[in-house]
Amino acid sequence: MKLPEAEQLLAQLTEQMRPQVSAQTALLGIHTGGVWLAERLHANLALSIPIGAIDVAFYRDDYHQRGLHGNARSSQIPFAVDGARVIIVDDVLYTGRTIRAAMNELFDHGRPSSVQLAVLVDRGGRELPIAADFCAHATTLPAAQMLALERSEAGTLSFRMVEK
Amino acid sequence: MNQPLSFQRNPQLNSNGELQHLLSIDGLPREIIERILDTAAPFTLVAEREVKKVPLLRGKSVFNLFFENSTRTRTTFEIAAKRLSADVINLNINTSSAAKGETLLDTVDNLAAMQADMFVVRHAASGAPYLIAQHLAATGRKHIRVVNAGDGRHAHPTQGLLDMYTIRHYKKDFSQLTIAIVGDVLHSRVARSQIHGLTTLGVPEVRVIAPRTLVPTGVERMGVRVFNDMREGLRGVDVVMMLRLQNERMQGALLPSPQEYFKSYGLTPEKLALAKPNAIVMHPGPMNRGVEIDSSVADGAQAVILPQVSFGIAVRMAVMAMLGGGGQ
Lengths: 164, 328
Prior knowledge:
Helix content of chain A: 10-25%
Strand content of chain B: 5-15%
Distance between the termini of chain B: 20 Å
CATH topology of chain A: Rossmann fold
Low-confidence stretches of chain B: 1-7
CATH topology of the largest domain in chain B: Rossmann fold
Largest interface: A-B, 25 and 21 residues
Distance between the termini of chain A: 16 Å
Structural class of chain B: alpha/beta
Order of helices and strands of chain A: HEHEHEHEEEE
Radius of gyration of chain B: 20 Å
Strand order of the largest sheet of chain B: 7-6-5-8-9
Helix content of chain B: 25-40%
Shape of chain B: globular
Number of helices of chain A: 4
Shape of chain A: globular
Number of domains of chain A: 1
Largest sheet of chain B: 5 strands, parallel
Mean pLDDT of chain B: 91
Order of helices and strands of chain B: HHEHEHHEHEHEHEEHEHHEHH
CATH architecture of chain A: 3-Layer(aba) Sandwich
CATH class of the largest domain in chain B: Alpha Beta
Low-confidence stretches of chain A: none
Strand content of chain A: 25-35%
CATH class of chain A: Alpha Beta
Oligomer: heterodimer
Number of helices of chain B: 13
Mean pLDDT of chain A: 96
CATH architecture of the largest domain in chain B: 3-Layer(aba) Sandwich
CATH superfamily of the largest domain in chain B: Aspartate/ornithine carbamoyltransferase
Number of strands of chain A: 7
């Protein structure tokens, strides 16, 4: 399978989102790839509310099987969540469990007025009733393959295939 | 009783090298200590949120098993467990079963039968938490975790870890530091945990400052320099870690009087001026003002004693979160 072009998809995602965002839109990136994307989208869309970053380690549903995920980072949400119009940003949408964890954490910071989801790639394999509102590319990947977003020193985004 | 081999080697770690119990800093590899400190950092922010809780230990029962009084340590463990969404049961054993003659392990068996998932143990006897962990492993209940909240003169690992966290927070890097531990080292489990932690993390110079009568014999073998003169010992240090004078553990004529002690070993502004100008002052609490520390130092700009308390909650959350998850 040909790897999706991350930079190209980011440009498409930006144009998808442009008509739907406003000065009230707040982006919330999921560590790590989602934060990179949120930073780029924030600049592309000239948004004013600073981006938030979320690490879902404390909300994962596999904690009781697998323990605490290594390298938990701080979730930082620099805007008031109460009444906010939040778009959660992630690189790849798969089972939907990460998004569920992110929403659970988000609601422990307050009550947003709306929550949407933007992803570069939807790779299928959903296990929860979660769908993206903005998605640049949909495909179906076997469970043994994982798409990983990477960022070069110059800031260029690209995908790499990881075989499990 | 047959012990699994791994338990005899290091009961704190499983065969994959993951933390199973926290019994002492002694024997913890540097990576585990650093992982605890790294994990504590995001927990410090949970307290600033609207909902000061994360769901990790939802549905788990944490038993605070305190055979010896301690308000602060018990309270911070209780807050930490509650912020992880655990159910917390506090037992002050010195006022209940033990007073009626029940043995330590009988008490543990009874509480284990109440579906305990974690024991946080404070005991006057060194090694009591180790004994409990060993007993649980030998009786097929190794899924129950044990955290040492202070045992005799042996160890107080979460206090040591929160001190490491505090130093890292203010000084960033351990590799250039000179650190002085001042006071009643002889009776102090805190000092032992601090020394193990600091040397494991690569602090090049750890000093112990105390009167001869309060220095344990052979402490130099732990990699510290001993000073009996406080002024000499404080010269050029980056961190001053004060210990509490343990009045309740003093027997015989170890000290002349609290006033005499303060004169020689109390931290005053004038003595603190011998340390580096940006040195921080730490104390595990509770403080004896006017005995080991002058009020103007305790309340001064260099004191980080109250941040230590806040960091202590995050560090205990990190330890319990690392212990409470999956994997045997």
